[in-house]
Amino acid sequence: MIVANRKNIREIRDMIKDHKRVLLVGCGTCVTVCLAGGERETGILGSALRMALKLDDREGVVVDECTIERQCDDAFIDALGSHGAEYDAICSFGCGAGVQALAERFPKTAVYPGLNTQFMGILEAQGVWTEKCSGCGNCRLGEFAGICPITRCSKRLFNGPCGGSRDGECEVREGLDCAWQLIYDRAREIGMLDKLESIATPHDWSSGLDGGTRKVVREDQCIAGLGPKA
Amino acid sequence: MAENEPLIIAFCCHYCAYAAADLAGSMRLQYPTNVRVLKLPCTGKLEVNYLLTAFERGVDGVIVAGCLEGGCHFLEGNLRARRRVERAREILGEIGLEPERVEMFNLSSAEGPRFAQIVTEMSTRLTKLGPSPLRPERTTLEEGVRELTLQAEANLSGEKHDRCQP
């Protein structure tokens, strides 16, 4: 899932300072699960923001909140109906994709992010999320026993650990597992050590973040006349 | 009630603090009348937004009273509540409202005198702090607190609501 955490209230308050009617929009998908921008968190921020504005003598500012199922899908934004256009600003509590989807849907309304989108990760323990995928566009997890050296090795090494691996821990930060120790241990466990003996080829970064917005098109799923923009 | 007297909401666990408040009454113990008791099935039901909504309505302080640590009927509801109270305190600090306006207490159902003591302690603390800067006039405040109580009861009874209606 996409993991995010909320911006501090001061930052949000400063972003909306020129507006009189603000709608906080939560998202019911990833950010609900990572307890950053779901219905409950948006409600908390709504209360906090209304109080903060009142304490700033800006009592006239209207701050309402609502949560839709999924911000990153235009069909779900329908649930907002015409509400969005009734406000002069929207503060999205979705990930960066959600913020931009709302901005596209409401072209005449200022849209602000209420969260800092962090990474794609998993729930490690109650209240703890860790990054697992960098979305490099060219997955090679099969070569590394299912542990990603791009995301989890601090130096993104493809051919074994550096000299900073100590007792399974990375030298970069205390408590950070050495990805290569994990790769080695797991490869041994599943009988794949031989795979690590061959030199890993350089990664094809052309499918990564550089070179503009990435797009995935499934021609068989496209509806004639409603296909993707060229 | 005097206009400047602090108004306190006490979120009380059904299994301990609520019974302790009842006991305090049966024992004819005297404690400030400015507290409004709201019963929860467990303090673990408490959400941060309950606390913030109370402050938004203008209450001067909030008491969260749960079972003794280790004695929660639902094992760890009171421990979770303590962490939520901490989070609410952080948020209050962030917006410039004194965090000490909300506090978590632990007591057993046999501690009527302790309940009276907690209310007295919070009342004294809030009188010293002065009224909440968010406080409306008395009748609006009382009305807001009544509404909040009804809302909480509706939430607890599982009443559905439309989450996409700003």
> What is the overall silhouette of chain B?
globular
What's the helix-strand series of chain B?
EHEHEHEHH
Oligomer: heterodimer
Mean pLDDT of chain B, rounded to whole units? 91
Amount of helix of chain B? 40-55%
Classify the fold: give the CATH topology of the largest domain in chain A. Answer: Rossmann fold
Major sheet description of chain B: 4 strands, parallel
Strand content of chain A: 15-25%
Q: Report the mean per-residue pLDDT of chain A as an integer.
A: 93
What gross morphology of chain A would you assign? elongated
Descriptors:
heterodimer, A: 230 residues, alpha/beta, Rossmann fold, 7 helices, 20% strand, B: alpha/beta, 4-stranded parallel beta sheet, 4 strands
Description:
The complex is a heterodimer of chains A (230) and B (166). Chain A is 25% helix and 20% strand. Chain A contains seven helices and seven strands. Chain A has helices at 9-15, 30-33, 39-55, 74-77, 96-105, 149-152, 179-189; strands at residues 2-6, 21-27, 62-68, 89-93, 110-113, 115-125, 128-133. In chain A, the strands form two sheets. In chain A, strands 3-2-4-5 form a four-stranded parallel β-sheet, sandwiched between helices. A three-stranded antiparallel β-sheet of chain A has the order 1-6-7. Chain A is elongated and about 65 Å long. Chain A starts with a strand and ends in a 41-residue tail after the last helix. With 166 residues, chain B is of the alpha/beta class. Chain B has one domain: Rossmann fold (3-Layer(aba) Sandwich). Chain B is built from five helices and four strands, in the order βαβαβαβαα. In chain B, α1 (17-26) crosses α4. Chain B starts with 7 loop residues before the first strand and ends in a 10-residue tail after the last helix. The interface between A and B is medium-sized, with 24 and 18 residues.
